[in-house]
Amino acid sequence: MKKIILLLSVVLVLFSCKKSETNNAVETKKVRVRKQPKTISYTLEKTKQWLEKIANDSSKIHIAFAINRTDKANFVQMDSVIIPTDMSGDIEFYLPFPHHIDYLKDIDKIIYFSYPTQTFAAYENGELIYTGPTNMGRKKDQTPTGLFFTNWKAEQTISTFNDEWDLRWNFNIENKEGVGWHQYSLPGYPASHSCLRLQEKDARYLYDWADQWILADEENVKVKGTPVLVFGSYNFDAPKPWLQLIANPKAIDISEDEIEKVTKPFLSAILLEQKNRKANK
Q1: Using CA atoms, how far apart are residues 122 and 208, in angstroms rounded to an integer?
Q2: Distance between CA atoms of 176 and 21, rounded to whole angstroms?
Q3: Span between the terminal Cα atoms of the chain, in Å
Q4: pLDDT computed for residue 120 by the predictor
Q5: Each residue of 234-277: pLDDT tens digit?
Q6: Shortest CA distance to 181 belongs to which of 152, 147, 161, 146?
Q7: What is the model's pTM?
Q8: Of the candidates 53, 41, 45, which has an alpha carbon nearest to the alpha carbon of residue 79?
Q9: What's CA 209's distance to the chain center, in Å?
Q10: Positive or negative, the Cα torsion across 177, 231, 263, 253?
Q11: Largest CB tally within 10 Å, which of 149, 156, 176, 276?
Q12: What are the Cα distances from residue 254, in Å, to 222, 223, 236?
């Protein structure tokens, strides 16, 4: 009998250790390891000369596009561009969103679009998992701000504003007003007709990552999609805000406190919809 009890004790200990190792493995997996540059500072460079100097280094070009809120087609047409002096880090270190926000720990998924910095960020339980540049609504067609939820999506669709505009990886966030994110030209400033323009790789990532709504019928929504919070305002009469980075690399950083402030009025609605989604899986 004593041998049986001893054997059971050993089995329980081994099971407990194994379970602990599994939990630790899961927790470790959630920690994102980012490569940080030694320094973060910026200079203004002549575009053509800089492109010749970096010899088609795709990682550096990717960072440069993001910092200048643009894409390849528009980048090469710019006379001067902002470039980090040290480009050895991951893109998150050159864009303004915080890498972790404790306040968001209970929110499974959320996307932020910052009007003043023309950037977006996707978080899972407070951890930044993806970020990049955007070009939002121009002065006379500004993107509405506030809380939205993703609804329907289409890999390819035609703009309701101009039927000659082909929109790829379109994910709608405001059904009645036709506002959503999609791939389209990024000239490096707010230029859209209220939508959230993205580089194609970014539009595709969010397209796959965010959740669609679930309809009860043709007229009623049963479950809303992923929360999307658009916040801040853009001074259309001032120089591009990211030009300030040359004098102060932290000039347009977004703080955890700011994210908490813009999220707090909508937190209960976000968590309620999240609970509803889990209940209807």
Answers
A1: 12
A2: 49
A3: 47
A4: 98
A5: 999 999 999 999 999 999 999 999 999 999 999 999 999 999 99
A6: 152
A7: 0.87
A8: 45
A9: 11
A10: positive
A11: 149
A12: 34, 31, 19
